[in-house]
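tool=predict chain=A
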Amino acid sequence: MKQVQIPQELFILLLRYHLMEEDSHVDEIRIGLEKKLDAMVLRELYGKSKTALTETERGKARQEYLDRRGIPDSFRW
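tool=predict ok
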């Protein structure tokens, strides 16, 4: 199983939410977790774009990575 690192502030907010039932920071928790998930997806796509077995798979992963990053077609090679 892989491990995931999150910022200390997000960890503390999660602790407060789950252990002390403070739900005043739900939006901050949601935003922090979404940012982390996006970063994980981008990292996985980047890795696939470099290590996929076939050129087609590498190209597809590269295109999806660049699309998610918001890089315009004019900047791509």
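The chain has three helices and no strands. The longest helix spans residues 26-51.
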